[in-house]
Amino acid sequence: MKILDIKNLTKDFGGLRAVNNLSLSIDEGQILGLIGPNGAGKSTAFNCIAGVYSPSDGEIYFNGEKINNEKPWNLCKRGLARTFQIVKPFSSKSVLYNVMVGSFANKDKRAEAEKKSLEILKYLHLEDKKDIRAGNLTIADRKRLEIARALATEPRLLLLDEVMAGLRPTEVDEMVEIIKNLRDSGITVFVIEHIMRAIMALSDWIVVIHFGQKIAEGIPETVASDENVIKAYLGEEYGVS
Amino acid sequence: MTRQKLQISSLVLVGIITFGLPVVLRSPTYLHILILLYLYAYLTTSWNLVGGFAGVLPLGHAAFVGIGAYTSTILYLQYGISPWLGMIVGGVLAAIVGIIIGLPTFKMRGAYFALATIAFGEGIRVMVENIDYLGPFNLNGPRGLQIPPLNVGLTNLMFTNKEPYYYIILVMLVAVLALTYSISRSKLGYYLNAGGEEPEAAMSLGVNVARCKLIAMAMSSFLTALAGTFYAQFTLFIHPKSVISLDLSFEIAFIALIGGRGSIAGPVLGALLLRPVGDFSRIYFGATLPGLHLIIFGTVLVLVMIFQPRGLQEPLTRVYHKLLDRLIPVPAGTE
Amino acid sequence: MIYIVEDLINGILMGSIYGLTALGLTIIFGVLKVINFAHGSLLMVGMYVAYWAVSLSGLHPYLTLLLVVPVMYLFGYYLQDIVIKPIFKAERDVREPITVIIVTTGVWYILDNLTLLIFGPQYRSIQDNPLRGKMLEIGEMMISVPKLWGFFAAIITAGSVYWFLQKTRTGRAIRATSLDRDAASLMGIKQYRVYNIAFGIGTATAGIAGVTLVPFYNVFPTVGVLFDIKGFIIVVLGGLGSIGGAILGGIIIGVIESVGPQFMTATWTEAIVYGLFLLVLFAKPSGLFGVKYEW
User: Fold this and answer.
1) Considering the domain boundaries, does residue B334 fall inside one?
2) Prediction ipTM score
3) pTM for the full predicted model
4) How many domains does chain A have?
5) With contacts defined as CB-CB under 8 Å, which chain C residues touch B259?
6) Which residue in the set B104, B115, B294 is minimally distant from C232, CB to CB?
């Protein structure tokens, strides 16, 4: 069964159609990459899935259940977690505190939540920073914290929204490793990304959208040589003829 | 002696002192001042559950004081029900009203929310001032309600001397501080903080922000109403301008803010610092320089907000930790 | 029947003055995105300045505008610059600067009580007032002349401020900052200077409102409190940031207060005003004419 199944998703903002009849699906245990030029509608699609926007049309199925218009906190309880393109840490609180908020999704007792959080911090190599104020972290660490927090909710599907933006090449490589490890531990990952080499290295399957519509999909090699994709990114003059 | 032992022993010491004070301090005037001090500390700590933990700015909490005061007083005067029971009824009523107010207002942004709570507070005051009878209940409008000092005793929460009042409010204060402490370390506390700081992120992490705020509001209004009953039984006279006034709502909020909202000790600290200043300037300068205490108040508020927006508890906590370091140096690598 | 029309007219006149008092509030909110709780106190200061100017010089109250407007503008400009700006700077990343609201309340407490201390609690009104109690007779109706003056003052002030914001360079800078302060500052507009100017303008209009009130309203230290709360209600009703909305909102309140007592007690009228306020807050928070703000 597909863990995520999107059928004909459409989202309008007034007169602007941000997402147009988008259909895609993800198998459990896959890493799916969503790419497209800026403004293509990627984050909007994410936000529809994550319950922030309500779709104008179409259906979204998570584990076979329709989740249109479901509230974000309920989605989290069902096993769907997400990160934000512009990170939103609880800046005035410590790294550990941040992750604990996530852990409480499945635990009620503070001691258990703390234990789980420390495990996750260790997994992501953040445990020596556990008492640092989140607002004082570097951007790379903040992105890692964002993932740690989402991970603490024990998701089955993780939506990562441009998690590599602003990272240096070595940091990008580290993040690729982290995401691969997440997949190996059983979590399905749905990634939006701009950094080509990362997404090519990570994804089992790629979907390309442009102006809210799917223009190509396939394994990374196929997509990279797809004429429409090249045109979309580089403009009409560069189409391979 | 470890750090933890020192902290606990000093807390116990403070406890012994405060509980033993009336034995040493016999003057009713000072006891009266202390009782009001504890009352304000209690009110600001209760306010803190919403204003500090939930991250919003409620400026109409006096309404809950009024609900508590009027409910228990009416039940006592008209039906002879013990104020202890009336206290609980008032609390529950306040919690319900709090939820009703919270449902539409928590969706609003900061400034709008503040205005809405002011409007609710004033609206309730105007209502009580203008209604003599609410169904079978006699509110007596602006003239207020007076409790005749008969039938003194524990069941009626009425005493001839100040000591029993002192202990009651002290116990209430300790209880509410303990509650705040336990909430701050609980799931609700974490969720409230998260929801107040970054609601979108919190929601994506499983936090039903609106529901948590409502729970906090219900708790806060319940507790605040209890203080209203206490006040009614202490002064034996209530009227809208004294228990449902905008001044009271603002004073509660500001003491908490100056002390440090969101922290546990902040509101108490604020009360400890500001009430004596207010009393002092009122007693000694009330005639010659009227309103001086409010000028001091306002100035302190402005200065604290500019230089220490997290409240005075922040620098004081740092001093406290430095003191602990001096007394019990922590060897590197431990703790 | 004729009394209702008379009440209606007087309500509109008084309402426009209410709108004038709320004008500064809406400008400050529109630009700085904060609610200035000290607004009533600023109005009070304006009234005292006007009162003393008239009492000491014997001038016609409206002539004191020459003094009141610049004095109040500078007062507001520097109040924002010295007291409020530091907090903005400290809370730059916070979405809603709640602390500013609190600080303005501190300023309110200070101003009101300092005035009480210096001038005492007496109610004052100007002697030899050329406008006091003057009535205009139209048929059987008595229209209050000082309120009529106030009406014109309100319309002219609102119109001038609107023209200023639309047509002048500074005005455009102010509007740009109110729409998106980051974008505006990237365009070279000095954000804090704009805030100072906006605060100055808002305070100056409070001063003008004070001048219109002095001929028929008593002057005392806490006079601002009533107008403060009413101001918030008007501004939410009309839409935070909308100049026309402030005047119209004021007129609505003025009419309710004026016509209401014909049908119910004055205190129930007060309750209706609060009720209306809450209704607007819940149903249409952007007010009758306001823009939905992207917080």
Assistant:
1) no
2) 0.89
3) 0.87
4) 1
5) none
6) B115
